[in-house]
Amino acid sequence: MAHADITFLPDPDADSISSDVAEFNGLLVSTQIPTHADGSLELGGITEQSECTLQALKVALERAGSSLDRVLHLTIYLTDMADRPAFNAVYQRFFAKPWPVRAAVGVAALAVEGMKVEVTAMAAKG
After folding, report:
1. pLDDT tens digits along 23-69
2. Contact between residue 88 and residue 3 where contact means Cβ atoms under 8 Å apart
3. C-alpha angle 74/88/26, rounded to 5°?
4. pTM to 2 decimals?
């Protein structure tokens, strides 16, 4: 897909079929899973996966010229809604007031067995 007003930054993982960030009219969209900087997946508990996922989001946004404090909307996908309080505890270490608009969605499964969390964020550029 090629549009002059949309920019996609490819995921560093050559096998990925998803872009890290898409920019359109000054907004960025990024989807992140619990991936370490070396590309390995974190498949430990919800706290470890949440920390890894939000750190990956932070890195992706900064790489694209934005930051966590520019996040407007966040969708959180959890395989167990009972994990929401643990995710929220980590979330509050990465974000501050005014809180982004957000939604938590319970899903049956994510792309990799054992993955408990995935986030999609929309952020302002700059």
Report:
1. 667 777 789 999 999 999 999 999 999 999 999 999 999 998 899 99
2. no
3. 20
4. 0.84
Query: 98 preceded by cis ω (within 30°)?
Result: yes
Cα separation of 41 and 48, whole Å?
A: 11
Domains identified in the chain and CATH numbers: 6-124 (3.30.1330.40)
The pLDDT tens digits for 76-123 are 999 999 999 999 999 999 998 888 889 999 999 999 999 999 999 999
Strands 101-106 and 19-24: unpaired
Residue 28 structure tokens? 């960025």
Specify the residue for token string 């980590």: 90
17-36 b/e with 16+ CB inside 10 Å = b?
Answer: eeebbbbeeeebbbbbbbbe
